[in-house]
């Protein structure tokens, strides 16, 4: 369950951005997750739900964009998406390639921030 | 309610770990120590291969050290310390992988200068350690003959980030009907061009080849050569 460490990092980074922006509440975060990053989406969602409690991300939607693996083929002089991650070879000419162009991403792409005044949870507390 | 503001963050989620790892890599390179991160399933024989590696290096008078990660117990550190090398145990208490700051915390008080190799034995797991850079220069993926030839196809993420693979317990290959060519072909499929060494900590098969590989990597890695 390394997804709980990943979720903690997401919440920490996003919370810092909220503080830098002067406060507010996060409506959604968008991640880019490569097929090679070994992240299990359900496990990450489960961990995220636990970790975000009591933070500006409580109630935030987690959007996950899965990035397929592509490799550079020097023979074809082009990058190709792999039909299977069990075989790192050019899908056109079959030449093996270890030159990965995409698929290892584990990135926090964007945060949708609502201003503090829109924070219904905080408003209900006061 | 107003529209949300979109903050284009574009940050690596493991940025904090990556920064710690980068800082450590700088320290390791400056000190001339080659750091090896050993990753495999539980029971592949990381500790046995490492113990034999340490024993052989200590016998040659080469300064080495090791850090070993486990969920619980310091059994592995005690096993490895029998080699005569300094060994530290990281107990993760449930965490399924090592992170850079754990390794950093366990370097305290060790003089890295003069050390030739530092081995980090990760927690036994073929998935979770993949994304965590520990500042290593060499990532060794291990696969034992008892695990089956298709392990690399089942765990391409880990094998794909490795620099070298070891097929361990090769002395048991025949008893397990292990198909070496198929295992090598599967490793090649998920990591084209990666070197594969067949080892046995029991018979010492492949250990010289492994030590030669390490020596070559260390020569290429150091900023300046050892003083005469």
Q: What does the model show?
A:
The complex is a heterodimer of chains A (126) and B (228). Mean pLDDT of chain A is 92; it is low at 121-126. In chain A, helix 1 crosses helix 2. With 126 residues, chain A is α+β, with helices and mostly antiparallel strands. Chain A has a domain at 3-68 and 103-116: hypothetical protein PF0899 fold (2-Layer Sandwich). Chain A has a three-stranded mixed β-sheet, with helices on one face. In chain A, strands 4-3-5 form a three-stranded antiparallel β-sheet, with no helix packed on it. Chain A contains three helices and six strands, in the order H-E-H-E-E-E-E-E-H. With 228 residues, chain B is α/β, with parallel strands linked by helices. Helix content of chain B is 35%, strand content 21%. The model of chain B has no long low-confidence stretch (mean pLDDT 94). The A-B interface holds A 1-2, 5-6, 9-10, 12-14, 17, 21, 27-28, 31, 36-39, 85-89, 96-98, 100, 104, 106-115, 117-118 and B 1-2, 4-17, 95-97, 99, 127-132, 153, 156-158, 160-161, 188-194.
Task: Let me know the average pLDDT of chain B.
Answer: 94
Shape of chain B: globular
C-alpha end-to-end distance of chain A? 37 Å
Supply Rg of chain A.
19 Å
CATH class of the domain at 3-68 and 103-116 in chain A: Alpha Beta
CATH topology of the domain at 3-68 and 103-116 in chain A: hypothetical protein PF0899 fold
Order of neighbouring strands in the sheet with most strands of chain A: 2-1-6
β-strand number of chain B: 8
What's the architecture of chain B, going by CATH? 3-Layer(aba) Sandwich
Q: Percent of residues of chain A in helical segments?
A: 25-40%
